[in-house]
TrEMBL record:
<protein>
    <submittedName>
        <fullName>Putative 43kDa postsynaptic protein</fullName>
    </submittedName>
</protein>
<feature type="transmembrane region" description="Helical">
    <location>
        <begin position="6"/>
        <end position="26"/>
    </location>
</feature>
<keyword id="KW-0472">Membrane</keyword>
<dbReference type="Pfam" id="PF13181">
    <property type="entry name" value="TPR_8"/>
</dbReference>
<dbReference type="InterPro" id="IPR019734">
    <property type="entry name" value="TPR_rpt"/>
</dbReference>
<dbReference type="InterPro" id="IPR050498">
    <property type="entry name" value="Ycf3"/>
</dbReference>
<feature type="repeat" description="TPR">
    <location>
        <begin position="163"/>
        <end position="196"/>
    </location>
</feature>
<keyword id="KW-0802">TPR repeat</keyword>
<keyword id="KW-0677">Repeat</keyword>
<dbReference type="InterPro" id="IPR011990">
    <property type="entry name" value="TPR-like_helical_dom_sf"/>
</dbReference>
<keyword id="KW-0812">Transmembrane</keyword>
<keyword id="KW-1133">Transmembrane helix</keyword>
Amino acid sequence: MPIILIPIILITIIIFIYLLITKNLIKTFRYKHLPCYDAKHHFINGAQFLSKSRSTSDRTIAIKFAKQAADEADRSIALDPNDAASHVLKALALDAQGYTTSALTALDVALSPLTAKSLSDAERGEALFKRAEIKKVSCCKEERVDSVFEDLVESVKLYGENAEAFWMLGECYEKKGRREEAVRAYEKAVRIDPVCGARDALKRLGSGLVLDIETPPARE
């Protein structure tokens, strides 16, 4: 074999090996990450259905869209079960249909240690608030205050810009007979949103904060 052919053969072998390795890597990457992309696709579809459900005043149509949102959430979860956002979406879609127990179960999964790490602090705070909101109307009276209270305390720690969470927390403090803490929670709610219902609670409790915050003028 002529000596000049040896380098050509070696280069050909190297190129062949390189192309084979590259092809296998691309194939592995594609199939490894495809479920994640498909999961996001189903999540986006579900979020759109939920938005349509909330934007219509027709109860029948709203439930239909909410069911479609829940189905898309299930498809997303099947592909990426550790993404908490899909579990939250499922919970919201189930709650929109009136399935509060199932909605709470979905939120419990979303907030479990395995999945909650995929949420930001603000997202976890909002999920905790939503769980508290559902518990408030679905749990028995004996369980309601303490269970809702625990979620709300953690919620406002993680996300301190939710006026409704502070308002509801104030109500829990009142039920526990802790007036001063209730006032502080209501005051935080009013500072975030001066027209929220916590303003009336402050007036009832005799707080002077409401006098310091001007009520925004009504829209024409």
